[in-house]
Amino acid sequence: MSTPQPSSKDIRQPSPGPGRPKDLAKRAAILEAAERMFLRHGYEGVSMDQIAAAAGVSKLTVYSHFGDKGALFTEAARSWCEQQMPVSLFERAPHLPVRERLMDIAHSYFTMVCSPEAVAGHRLLCSPQMVEKQLARLFWEAGPERVQAEFARFLERRIAVGDLVINDVQHAAGQFFALVRGDLHSRLVFDCDDGEPGHARQQAHLEAAVDMFLRAYGARDPAQ
After folding, report:
1. What are the distances in angstroms from CA 208 to CA 48, 49, 90, 134?
2. CATH number of 24-81, picked from 1.10.10.60, 3.40.50.2300, 3.40.50.410, 1.10.490.160
């Protein structure tokens, strides 16, 4: 008696896939090592071998995840900005006054750009090598441009409910972050201050920046 042969319907065919999935833990370790080492030693002072060693992976693994050093640099910048200013910071909170929401965003942004790591990174991005390699532009697109776009969407939602009156949202978003950085950030970058500004000075600066923004774009009561 012959044994019945399974039909094609009974045979589970392997599903095609794009390849072996990347190890997310290794990817995170590579990004963390890259952020730390780029800030400490600059772009030219760090090799892919050194980043791989610091992350505890092979150089092949680094290239497998990021392709080349420039791609790793821009992805590290994007990751760092997202950690400091996640999308959730700009999400809807219609029950909160617009000034309170702007102050929250201003605090997070100012803390990010005035941290020792960010100040060191800003100086690095202004170097001729970074400009020539267009890495400064790639950094802008991967980090600050994303933050500004998320903030512009926040402004549009507040315009829709009548909290703000803005004709050019993109322009206003750029103005807001320029106000928040202000003179204090420039002093840190040029090493004209002894460390980060104190809490009282920082708070007064951010309140003045937000109030100036609202004087320009806040909705006014027609009865006033």
Report:
1. 44, 47, 21, 35
2. 1.10.10.60
